[in-house]
Amino acid sequence: MSVKMQINGQEVQVQAPPASRLLDVLRVELGLKGAKEGCGEGECGACAVLVNGQVVNSCLIPLGQMDGAEIVTIEGVPGDSTLIQAFHDCAAAQCGICTPGMILAATALLAEHPQPTIDEIRWGLSGNLCRCTGYGRIYEAVTQASTGDTHG
Amino acid sequence: MIYPQRVDGLPKITGKALYVDDIPLNGVIHASTIRSSCAGGVVEELTFDPTFDWTPFVVVTAQDIPGLNAIKMLENDQPVLVDRVFRHAGEPLALLAHSDPCMLETALRHVHVRETPLAHPIFDIDEALGAESTIIPGNVYTDYLLNKGDVEQAQKNAECLIVERLLTPSQEQLYIEPQGMIAVLQEDGVLRIEGSMQCPYYVLDALEQCTGLDKNRLQVVQSTTGGAFGGKEDYPSMIACHAALLALKAGGLPVKLIYERGEDLRVTPKRHPSRSLVRLGANSEGELQFIDMDFAIDGGAYRTLSPVVLSRGVIHAPGPYRCANIRVRGRAVATNHPPFGAFRGFGAPQSIFALEVAMDRLAAKLNMDPAELRQKNLLHRGDVSPTGDLVGEDCFAQEILDEALRVSHYYERQDAFRVWNAAPHDTLRGIGLATFAHGAGFTGNGELYLASQVFLQAHADGQVEILCSNTEMGQGAATTLVQIAADALKLPLEQVHLAQTDTARVPNSGPTVASRTCMVVGDLIEKAAQRLLQKLRDEGGLAQTFTPAEFNAVCLRMQESGKDLLVSASYQPPVDMLWDEKSFTGRAYASYAWAAYIAEVEVDKLTLETRVLNFTAAQEIGHAVHPQIVQGQIEGGVVQGIGYALYENVLWNPFGVMANDRLTNYIIPTTADIGPLQIVLMEKGLGAGPKGAKGVGELPMDGPAPAIVNAIQQALKIDVAQIPAMPELLLDLSRAQRGSQCQ
To answer: Domain A82-147 carries which CATH code?
Structure first.
């Protein structure tokens, strides 16, 4: 089937079977490799993208549901955004494989809670697994992005 | 305080870093592995359906291996592909590749394997030790004995004695990037392997043995690696050999072999399960009279790294305590599980768990506070260590415990929890601790055998490259090594770069394990940097103090006059590093880091679910090269340790393979489980690394499990002898205790 989407602000038309996973469409058809496959069953969040402002695991989304959708991948997040800068300042990425998904989950979180409490951060990121950081530097990065405070 | 930003930070955060699955390839063929189903046995027949068209496929079996059919490791016992006899379910039998992953899936249904299963597969440590049927003679890969003083005699005089049997399960590393490799036979005849790995030279050696190709026809390149934690130490050699064998038959097409998560969980090595029988004896004052441990780990079906894991487990078993009589017998046992391997801590978390939980039992029996028992027994300068060497100036066991007790408000919390538990709340609270030390770098003479070498290459524009085989896999090595070099060279960070880990360019500076990258390789880099400066002074007239512009000018001048700008440094053992592997005596590690961890937990009375309320991790690490990276390492390790203590439960199917092979049912901590942790660093600057640095990465894996179990015991007043302390286990233990009280 033919599906029209807005991806990172660009109109994109994709011809693929409706059951194709959004993750494969992004990575293979469109070359957007920032979304990673960690588990393939919606548990780890490494493939997370924003669909109409909601954070979703792209490995669970069939292309057939995406007609007219507005999608943001890590490639659509400006490199100088406060969130990316905060992750960099706080060393919130270690191996980095979960980070693109984490950035998108944090983007959705901050859209809903511009000044999140630690509990809101913990709840908002609970769909994204990170095995390296123990989450501490990530909490700090999200807090820094929301308040503009920089602290080591 | 402002720290240098991670050199690998931005490409990863913006999604631009290329992991093995992201590397663009032309004409790629995808590969899949056909595996054994039974827990050991004989492959009677491997049939490729004759009615199926196999011409567009690349097929590899054991018969296609040009070199030796064995993975190069401590022993050549593990086949690259099973020829006939196999020892565990999930062993590779044959390989298939095709350009279309769907065709590959179809073809797999046309391969038929007929196996005669092993009559009595063995999955349990004690069953293996007593079994008549053997996988290897006696089912023991390695048998070590650490023996100091006279335990038998000391036992007669001990006034208080405890005996415990403690169990730890396997644990999956669960790097979020599954394992994978790309192999291509290039037009120049070089077989090039690129992928996710910790130890490129292990992979190179394995390829040389398996393909029979000369090393100058082999090239191993590390791609951005999405976590490893030990899990990508030995198994990448297997995947690389498989991809390479396919590539040799693929007519120049790149072969991509990436494991799906389930396959990764089922077949790649995990933490060794352990069983410890511990006996501790003390006098009525609480002074340890003897430590006696029978420590056994499940090595799985092949030897792989088990002897080295065992030796670390044995050396760490007596803990950071002063005790004249110590006996630790360690055995790595053969079973029909897939082989177990390296995982952060490498045998130490298992034996430290056993000892530290037993120490709390001893404290209880002595009617003494667990902290007080440790205060009485911690090593001090001038004591003799468990392996018989003198404890020198670099000993801070006591100081770090005092600090942990202070910042965690240990005694105040104890009082508060007593009050809480006496009131009608829905939860019970407890506080528990563990004191321990962790040796950094290879055990004993390991560094001597490795004989690591690093190069520094300056270029005409003054840029300096570090050439070493150590890998960045998330732990921050790329940043800390650059920082160490820039610091020693007195150059800005931007002027120093870590070259891509490519065996065609970098020397063998050993594997990336055991915190040796920062401590041992970092030290070599510091030495190489001093040599480079000396060379520029001697041959290029560089002044004692210089600006980067002056440094650049000297580099350019030397380059133009045809002088080389390459220096190297090789490992030289410290003079006092004497270790006897046979008797387990001497100095086991160049440096120990010292730690005291304190866990506060809350257990729901109804569901018996445990929540960590607060966690204090205090450690003396010599020198923090990059405090922010150190903090991240400790937080990450502690959370893996919390998972080990509470959630992570590898379950086995009837064939000895991980049954919960999904992220849906193998549970690791999420943000919902983990609040901020209290990390305390003490830096005394006496370690063997740059500016006195020691290992950091393994330490946080050792302490959480015993501290949390000790806290749960305080909360519930029950004995917990195994992890993970899941509600089901706590329910059984509570019921059993209630039952025994009724009798």
So the answer is: 1.10.150.120
